[in-house]
Design brief:
three-stranded antiparallel sheet; five-stranded mixed barrel; 22% helix
Length: 205
């Protein structure tokens, strides 16, 4: 299916990071107007028939003091601290219901597969709760202490809105956080973007 055959759905043009750039979910319809596929903004399919799954990977600050820089955490749940929700507005029933349940936004069966694969590869994975903030400033040490009380293990500026949208569509999600730095106040050092990018490059290598 070519990009030209995809119909843009403004419902899922949503801003996730406070910038002027918007993420988009594209929809493909057949001749009867039935949904036959979901696509990301690059035209890559994230739904084919009954096989529905996407993955979300972010770089995050480690709130859990047992986590080390470079650890990978499987996201079990999230806290939406962005003050917004991409589903606000008129609901499109073709995607999902008006009030979607978020109890299993991060599919337990996919998390189990991830841990089984990691064990076979001799990799250690952490697990925990991700809290999403708007940025672009990093969080304050006081905010990090508050987030720990709320139950958060990592913190970042992405993922939450995408997962809400995917959950609304009935798409299973497997989420990961790469702990790119200790969260504010835990290392005694100033946080920098370069530190985050460096850890990301090292993990890719």
């Amino acid at each position: 299916m070519t990009r030209k055959s995809l119909k843009r759905i403004d419902k899922y043009s949503f801003n996730t990071d406070g910038s002027d750039e918007f993420r988009e979910l594209l929809l493909s319809l057949d001749g009867e107007g039935e949904i036959v596929g979901y696509y990301d903004e690059a035209g890559v399919s994230v739904k084919k028939g009954a096989q529905i799954a996407v993955d979300e990977i972010n770089a995050a600050g480690g709130i859990n003091e047992s986590f080390n820089v470079g650890d990978i955490m499987v996201i079990t749940d999230h806290i939406n601290f962005t003050g917004k929700n991409c589903l606000i507005g008129k609901n499109d029933d073709r995607f999902g219901c008006r009030f979607p349940d978020m109890s299993f936004a991060y599919a337990p069966e996919l998390r189990e597969i991830a841990f089984n694969c990691a064990e076979k590869l001799g990799m250690e994975l952490q697990k925990g709760v991700y809290i999403g903030c708007t940025g672009p400033s990093y969080e304050t040490p006081a905010e990090i202490r508050a987030f720990r009380v709320l139950g958060a293990d990592t913190v970042g500026m992405s993922t939450v809105q995408e997962v809400i949208a995917a959950n609304h569509c009935g798409i299973d999600v497997l989420g990961f956080s790469l702990v790119s730095n200790k969260a504010a106040g835990l290392s005694g050092e100033r946080l920098t973007e370069e530190e985050v990018l460096t850890i990301g490059r090292q993990k890719r290598e």
